[in-house]
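Annotated sample (chain length 761).
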Amino acid sequence: MRWIQKRARSYIVFTVFGLLAVGEASAQSGQTNKVGQVQPESTRRMAARLKELAEKSNPGRNRFLNKERVAGFEARLRGTTNLALINELGELYATELLNSGQSEQAMKQFQLLSEFYREVPEFAAPGKSLGMMLGGAMSAIRLGEQENCLANHNGTSCLFPLVPSAYHKLPRGSMTAISMLTNCLAAAPDDLRAEWLLNIASMTLGQWPDQVPAPWRIGPDVFASEAAMPVYPEIAGSLGLDVDDLGGGTVIDDFDNDGLLDVLLSSWGLRSPLHFFHNDGNGHFTDRTHEAGLDGLWGGLNMISADYNNDGLVDVFILRGAWLGREGRLPNSLLRNNGDGTFTDVTQEAGMYSENPTQTATWFDYDGDGWLDLFIGNESQMTDRGDRRPCELYHNNRDGTFTECAAASGVAVVGWVKGVASADYDGDGRPDLYLSLRDGGNRLFHNDGAVAGADPKSGAWTFRDVTQAAHVPGPSHSFPTWFFDYDQDGKPDLYVGGYRIFDVGDIVADYLHKPSRGVAPKLYHNNGDGTFTDVTVPMHLDRVLHAMGSNFGDLDNDGYPDFYLGTGDPDLLTLVPNRMFRNDAGRGFQDVTTATRTGHLQKGHACAFADLDNDGDQDVFMNMGGAYSGDNYRKVLFLNPGATNRHWVTLKLTGTKSNRSAIGSRIRVNVETPSGPRSVYKWVNTGGSFGANPLRAEIGLGDATAIRSIEIFWPTTGVTQTLPGVERDQFYTVTEGESAAKPWAVKRFSFDSSGRPNHRD
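Output written by the structure step:
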């Protein structure tokens, strides 16, 4: 017994000094204001509230406060000789070490636990030993990422499959992982989790595929691109846009109306700051977060943009609290663009203050009065019966304030809402609403018009659930969603991303064409009669993609929308490539991840397609990083190398009777091509439900030889405006009611990617 007691004490590895150091760093990074900053009272009030809620958050209920949870487990385990307690808490403690970023300590702890279960077999439940080896291997892999991909980051780091410039110079993490994973597979030869991680770890050392044992080798042919595409170099580091933080939101738009697209980033950590980058028009960006008055506005997993007050300036709504259940009772923020380079938090003044967990919302003018309203999809995790957080619908009162009217309008949905999209899917002139739910039961609401006899000032409206009648109920567990016209027939189709796996093995199984328990997405084709047809299989999207942040755009300017998916989940084992899909002229979607070299292995959150250098093609930005406090990573920007003999036009629409942002307007560009006339369709919006594209319309025209005309359908008046005399490969502004488009003299420039940082010795 004395031997067991002595040995038991060694099973717990302590890092108290390391915890104190990490805590001190977090406190320093959470300064509310810089010296001399002057913010409006409303902004300071919101910052103070966010600080208060961050300090009050309970690590016992918030599973993402991993550093604090480590300290709690250490307090319970310190000095114990209670083997039952070690069995109960040891794995939890090791996992929290991993999730908090203390990878080396986690690796040692998992190794000690493996020894514990060998020497005290009465606690070794089936699969326990394998779980400890996998945990140790993942800790070693993460250690390798921290020492190489983060500390020695360059433009090829973590891009799958790895090239020599991305190989780890410090090999100890991956070497340890390979040893552990080989032992895992010796014990469980069919474990796809271990097989996958063995290939990844080998790749980081340049040993893939040849040095991976044949029974577990996953060869390059599995990931072969389904179409030829050029490489999209990753250049965020050379531009200073590679913020290192957790996952979060992305808005790319022209906030000061200078014709240049700026970048606003959030990260979801309770103390994560916003980052506002001004586009200087010379290939560089300047961080103006402090000057913009954004200090202290912490957190935000997603953001959406629009001109809510019709003053000609793009405003931003920040969404907070997702995934956190009761701990997610955090306020959102409405940021008013003041037009002088600053923003003011006007959430309370606008009547939009609430404390509900959410990450998704959509701006749409549901009553057609020319002012944008806002629907917020809140999260009610249905396993917690006492916590019900209905969705919210805010009617724009046209004076800078809003009235909440979800219940009166029939859309106070209670569920785990993860994605929201709006579009006039049936062409009746009123925008409709689609909700994607994590726990099943997606909802399509048809906009039926005003409630009979209701006071117009109340905002009450009639929305009718037509999900079953329209045939769009799935998938059973879903996340991102959007309307887009994938086949360019003039009708908005619907994409809904599936989001359920048992573990990363389900994604690997799908790659290998083996049975998988994962949920695939759904692509619904608009039939034009109020119904949709499921075309997921014929469009080649019946794959387990497990997507989070995502968006759509036109990679090759062929006039057909493509999309990029951020894949994964909080579990660090779900280390899989993000996926890029090219639209093959509406005939199907092709996985071009490896050709474009956009298969980032880290977690991908809010995404935006945007022509950041005004050269006519869309670049792709993704907000990288996970959810656990130690799963940080650098944001990425993939530079579009351009497509040969492809044309485009960019239009900035301004509504006068319709909303100023022109959200909901339909653009039809009629062109001549060598094979005859063709129309290209685009709706003005920010794209998908997780990330915000610019509100200006960047439209690919393929091999068009000329533009015959442009037709714009304005949502408030129902009038179609026809514009002649528009040239290819140019920028224009279009004002509702005017007879012609005006040439827009925006500055064009190039990003110099030659200065991308290399590994630092």
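Annotation: Confidence is low (pLDDT under 50) at residues 1-6, 13-33.
Annotation: Residues 114 and 132 are 6 Å apart (CA to CA).
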